[in-house]
Amino acid sequence: MSEAALTPSPARPARRAGGARVRGESRLVQAILIAIALVFLLLVLGLPLASVFVEAFRKGWDVYLEGLSDPDALAAVRLTLLVAAIAVPVNVVFGLAAAWCIAKYEFRGKTLLTSLIDLPFSVSPVISGLVYVLLFGAQGWFGPWLKANGVEIIFALPGIVLATIFVTFPFVAREVLPLMQSHGTADEEAALTLGASGWRTFWTITLPNVKWGVLYGVLLCNARAMGEFGAVSVVSGRIRGLTTTMPLHVEILYNEYNTVAAFAVASLLALLALVTLVLKTLLEWRYADHLSANGKH
Amino acid sequence: MQAAASRWRQPSILPGFGLALGVTLTALCLIVLIPLAGLVLKAASIGPAEFIAIARSERTVAALRLSFGAAFLAALVNAIFGMLIAWVLVRYRFPGRRLVDAAVDLPFAMPTAVAGIALAAVYAPNGWVGSLLDPLGVKVAYTPLGVAVALVFIGLPFVVRTVQPVLEEIEPEVEEAAALLGAERLRTVFTVVLPAVFPALITGFVLAFARAVGEYGSVIFIAGNVPMVSEIAPLLIVIRLEQFDYAGAAVVGVLMLLASFLLILLLNLLHGGLRRRYGHV
């Protein structure tokens, strides 16, 4: 490398003939690569997202609102909120318990336990629903017993909740676990030595340390819980107004060629996705150091 | 952490291990392990002869071939463009870069059914992109190609988010050294940068592939769902269930489970260790 590059002076052009440019491409190459990346993202992500709102408002606000205020649509919104309200807290409790025992202790089979918690991520959503049908469906292992005792799980709320918990199972645990691991156990040990009880130590030391991680996990878990389609569609039975969550209601309307109403309900879900994305990005920017134990998300 | 290493192996003074492990194992068994065991038992209970008969039936084979073929194609497209997008996001500065960076995660946040009807609308013969391709004789929606497009959508963030952090950590000195030794830029990229990110790229590819194989919601709206042609394996499971053919559904389910376990195994072998961050959200 020439001296010029080692002692840069503003008077001299940074780039000399002979190509002293060490790192990076020419402006033209950069522009072309950026353009290709942006066009690809536009085709794959941008246009589909835009089309949701364009299709929803194709016939104006009145038709849009009409689609949303349909009693079945409102019932779907209520069911979706209910399912998320049950599944997300269950996940938080489970996620904290799992992170606590994996992060704070050494024991045999820890690696296996960690892999098993991640297992639902590698299972097709349809299979997540299928397993419950095989257990609790009319011809499933417990089907006859459930029928004799009048307990409804499949084609009812419990099945939908179970399938949702299955697909969202690892969300909170995997965000909190690396965070708890990075904090170690010194703080908790100090608190215990000073006479705090186990629960008090957890509430005043451990939880505040990982709260942003918990929030991050809750955010992703909630988005998945409200938007889950495959697993829920298998166990729901699609009884209109009773066992249809919002994504299932979208499917029903779409298959009835009621496109505007389908996209109207879909636009609510797309909005949920956008809000989730914005909150997630804000959390990453604002609390990067509190979330950084597991690197970039 | 190193000073504490020896203490970690001793019994901890922290309370609550039994409770936490109890809650974890109970939830894991009730929600995940017992139901999955039920699936395997169901498939096993029909006997090997019938299992093989269902597994080798024309429709099962066609569905599995489409699911795996389209997933492979989509993961390949994602590996190429995901690498490019990660590169552009890490190396270049342009207006809206942070917005684009955040937007890459859209497929993680977007409900799959919404993605499905939106992609069908855009790539249908009368859609924004479909209407441009239609005169060229290219049909995307309601063909196997449509399946691949949907799988590209849901797999993209896996590649970008796996490659991006690795690309960020490459020391500039290495590239500078290559350039100082006389390598052209393109050669530096292919002999210095690419080998460094290659493991991450493979990981991203496998993650995108594994996710795409099991995908259902975003595919069924754009696929057309013609048996033997554009019917994916998860859809075949749903159809079997609707016909109350639990055995048929269980066999396809077990075959898919088996395939995804093999993929995880392959991934772990490739990296010779446990991947803590397996399968991004």
TrEMBL record, chain A:
Keywords recorded for this protein, A-Z: Cell inner membrane, Cell membrane, Membrane, Sulfate transport, Transmembrane, Transmembrane helix, Transport
Entry keyword annotation includes Transport: yes
Pfam families: BPD_transp_1
Ranges annotated as spanning the membrane: 31-54, 74-103, 115-141, 153-173, 260-279
Protein's name according to its UniProt entry: Sulfate transport system permease protein CysW
Keyword Transport: yes
Native organism: Alsobacter metallidurans
Subcellular location field: Cell inner membrane
Domain of life: Bacteria
Membrane topology recorded in Swiss-Prot or TrEMBL: Multi-pass membrane protein
Example of a GO MF term: ABC-type sulfate transporter activity
Domain ABC transmembrane type-1: 77-284
Automatic annotation (TrEMBL), chain B:
One Gene Ontology CC term in the entry: plasma membrane
Keywords tagged on the record: Membrane, Sulfate transport, Transmembrane, Transmembrane helix, Transport
Pfam family, one: BPD_transp_1
InterPro entries (UniProt xref): CysT_permease (IPR011865), MetI-like (IPR000515), MetI-like_sf (IPR035906), Sulph_transpt2 (IPR005667)
Principal place of residence: membrane
Membrane topology: Multi-pass membrane protein
PROSITE patterns in the record: ABC_TM1
Domain ABC transmembrane type-1, chain residue ranges per copy: 64-267
This protein's record includes keyword Membrane: yes
Similarity comment text for this entry: Belongs to the binding-protein-dependent transport system permease family. CysTW subfamily.
Its job: Part of the ABC transporter complex (TC 3.A.1.6.1) involved in sulfate/thiosulfate import. Part of the ABC transporter complex CysAWTP (TC 3.A.1.6.1) involved in sulfate/thiosulfate import. Probably responsible for the translocation of the substrate across the membrane.
Assembly behavior: The complex is composed of two ATP-binding proteins (CysA), two transmembrane proteins (CysT and CysW) and a solute-binding protein (CysP).
NCBIfam families the UniProt entry points to: 3a0106s02, permease_CysT
Protein's recorded name: Sulfate transport system permease protein CysT
